[in-house]
Amino acid sequence: MMKKKYYASCTAGSALSVFGKYFSLVFFSFWTLLPLVSCLITAFKNEAEYQATSVMTLPHVWEWSNFVKAFATADMGRAFMNSVIVLVCVLAGSIVISSQLAFVLNRFRFFGNSLIRRLFLFATLLPGVAMQVSVYKIMGSLGLINHLYGYIIMMMGTDVITIYIFIQFMENIPLSLDESAIMDGANYFTIYARIIFPLLKPAIVTSLILKGVSTYNEYYAANLYLQSQKLRTVSISLYTFTGPLGSRYNLICAGVIISLVPAFIVFILCQKHIYSGITAGAVKG
Q: For a surface tag, which of 63, 105, 189, 273 has the fewest beta carbons within 10 Å of its beta carbon?
């Protein structure tokens, strides 16, 4: 009798646990997808219907022309080209610079090593907006404002989070690999390029995701330093439909959906590497 009660309580507890698990999954998925669904519905409405109906009301006439109009009016073709150039250059430069800094800080013990690490940690606590006055003056004195290469140089600057990801991953790479390479006549650059860097693939994937998402969605600095219409990125082009006389939210939502398509395609094509990179990076870190 006691065994039956015990098994019944265990069954009820496991059922309650499964219910809570799936309920929380459905609940948070619903609230996560709700803004995207409302944006998708709004993208197919004309301006009059958007003003007269709720954001979750399906349109009577599906305006596919909103996507063409948003793409052409906001000049999103040029904006995508600028974003791709910025993204490729920033990611390549950030990965190389951050991995080399992490290699020096992890593999060499010198006076000031711990101080530099603490300063990097302190830099993460400072809000980026608070330092924009000084950064803007530096950019202006160097003539880097309103130039795509100037914005790229600023964005590929020292990324503290990426540096710490590489440092934590290198902690798990044994020094015996370096010592064996030195005995074979390799210099430090060869050790970094041919031994350490290829082993950083999971950390590189994790860093590419974090840096890529923040760079692609970056608006404040892009709007501040890329003032020419020809230099606008995707995030800036979406503000074409806002103004003092009102905002055309149906076209804004259409532009948002268009801007999500490249990221969705990249995720579908690279999801295996993304999942494996994040998992391996989390375990190694």
A: 189
CB within 8 A of 58, min separation 6: which ones? 41
Distance of CA 1 to the CA centre of its chain: 57
Q: How many helices (H) and strands (E) does the chain have?
A: 15, 0
* pLDDT tens, position by position, 45-63: 888 888 888 888 888 888 8
pLDDT of residue 282: 47
pTM over 0.85: no
Q: Quick one: the chain helix, strand, coil %, rounded to 5?
A: 80, 0, 20
Write the CA distances from 86 to 6, 192, 217, integer angstroms.
62, 26, 12
* Cβ proximity of 248 and 241 under 8 Å: yes
Residues 6+ apart with CB under 8 A from 53: 45, 59
